[in-house]
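anyone seen this seq b4? input:
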Amino acid sequence: MIQICITSRLSSLPVVVAYKKGYFEEFGVKVTLHVNTHHKAIMPLLDAGRVEAGEVPTIAYLQDSFLKKSKLKRIYKGIYLYHSPLSFYSRFQFKPEDLTRNKAYILPVPHQYSVERLFAEKFLEEYAPKNPVKVRYIDTPGFLEEKEFLKPSCLGLVSDPFSSPFLRNFQDFANTLDLPILESKSFYPSTLLAFSGDAVLKTGREVSGVLLAVKKAIDLLQNTNQLSQGNLWEDLQLSHFYPHLRVGETKNLLNSHPLIQKGIFSYKGDATTLYPLLKDVYFRLIRRVIQPDAVKAAFDFDEILSALEPKKIFDVRKLNSFQEPKETKLHAPSQINYRKLNAVRHLIVDVNSVVLDILQGNYNSRLNSDETLQLDNRVKVLVNSMLDSFNAKLELQREEITELENLISILEIKLDRSAVDLQYSEEKYRYLFEFSREAIALVDADTGSILEANNQFRLLTGYTRGDITKMNIEDIILGNQVSNQLRFGADLSSDTMLSLPDVEILAKDGTKLEVDISFTSILLSPKKRYQVQFRPNSERKEQERLQHEFISNVSHELRSPMTNIRGYLEFFKSDATLPFNNEHKNMLEVIDKNAKRLSFLIENLLKLTTSREKDKEAEVVEIFDPVTVIEDVIHMNSHLAKGKPIEWDLSLKKGYFLRGIKFEFSQIITNLYVNALKYTFKGKIGISIRETNGKIEITVEDTGIGIDPNFKNQIFDRFFRIPSSDNKKIGGTGLGLSIVKSLVDKMSGEIFVESKMGEGSKFTIYFPKVNINA
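predicted toks r here
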């Protein structure tokens, strides 16, 4: 079994294709893939023989070859995997003068010794030769490139849009600059397939099978866009190996990108493209001057490629490229000599082994220690303690991550439910808004522009959706009726409710419509909106007209019989020959007062229902003591309390005076007192009068059935009666409290009501106090 470590970049695509297509089994090789292994970890794993093969940066292999300090090779070259058309990309087009030495920039690279690193240094030298900048190169896995690239401190990234598709959306300096480093259209050999020394020595035929399988995969990729069906991405299910890449973009690259034919995936390469980079940058890093001929030998793949041509299994150990080097071929100084049985040497070897275990994911690896107090054992104990502490923190973080993942899952479920509920609520609101029977428009509170209008509004005015979005509410409402009372863009923090009766609006065909308008403020997101309702008032006016005609007819029909009743009543009272006793006279007096009251009601019905006809008769305004009027009202209506267990609580102090019409005041007290008697079946009725803060306070209180708080604000409306079974039994017209309210307002007074269901009601009236001396 051969273990192959690769990255998740598209540079390792040939190995993945060979694995998914079964090319390894075709050549008799069993392979295990380790995906997402960073280049920085692959090199030590290969060197130690922990894995048999891996994808390594070309320059990293070259650096390992020239700095070898042992007679034995640890890493052997195979074939090229990827050739990159490098360029420099950034989030913005910066200029040389924009760079400053006072700021430290970062620049992601696949490996410290990679073609991308050399290209970046060469580019910065050519672009800003007189303004060197501080750049820290960060070894970054492919799946973290975009995250690092988008950081504010990142200067840029050296790559190509095939390997890093997200770069296509950012600035490519090759399109705007004329620099030698950017002029070349060559492909730089970016990564190659390398083998460990142990794998070559032990499994030479399997290594050749790996090379043949990868070569066949590269040939397939070169012909990908020539296939009749470009379904390579789906056939191989490559999203499992490259989950961080955008599937659509990568499919497009694999199926139609011209760079594939030009040689991005190719096992043949021209190492001469590296010489400009090696000459200026790389030789300075290794502190040695090496001629291009020496480099050419390290990158000579001709022998391997010629052996692959027959496409049959062969033993790579027979090739010169896989032979163990002699001491004369070493480029580095002689090997480092360690003393035998040196404790420090063994400690270093053990630590190196533990580090390699950790790189492979075995976090439980430890150094063997004993109970001695030798220095190397004490170091081992300390290292093990550090590893234990590290593992404890790592385990704690894993638990926290698990908890966070569970919490995120729960929040995602709740968010999904909230999104569904919100969508349902929005659809429900939109349905109710669109198909409401009322004509409704939604208006911006800042500008007054119409945002939306429902179907009923469009039918009423004739405007289309396109017309409405271009209009202002003041374009529809004629005159200044809205602007005088509603200022758009001002006082947006407070709620607003406004009703405008008998407003003229302009329809699309130019006709004028009379409607009643109501504005209601609502908050949608952080902005304020007005919901405007338009109600045609023709039906309301017709109802008012019919109501007025009905009451006028009833009033006129009642006047004639009332005149006859009062005439005959006066005749009976004035005829001294009739044998009336005192009781009969009192009855006639009560009949007379109630007849007068009924006549007054008939005369004032029209005043309460319309303002078109006003009574122009002179009204006698006088100053009177309210106590005498209240006592008359109680006396005249005493018969209503017969048979009821009711007590009276009267606190009537004379000496206070009011200004007004005495008869109208009697109507106020009569309606309140009669209501108290009608709705109190047992208990107590109280009437009091006193002075409070310079005003006369009159209170009528009972312990009756009380008033439903839902209808408390409607009891003073004309013809309104609370819908209840008690009201149906008691009867009435719904005009009593309406008359009280209008007469109290006429006398410059105020009326308030307090009530609880089942406990009774209390009406309190405040009138201006009149000084009789004045």
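The first strand starts at residue 2 and ends at 5. The two ends are 121 Å apart (CA to CA). kinda curious what u guys think
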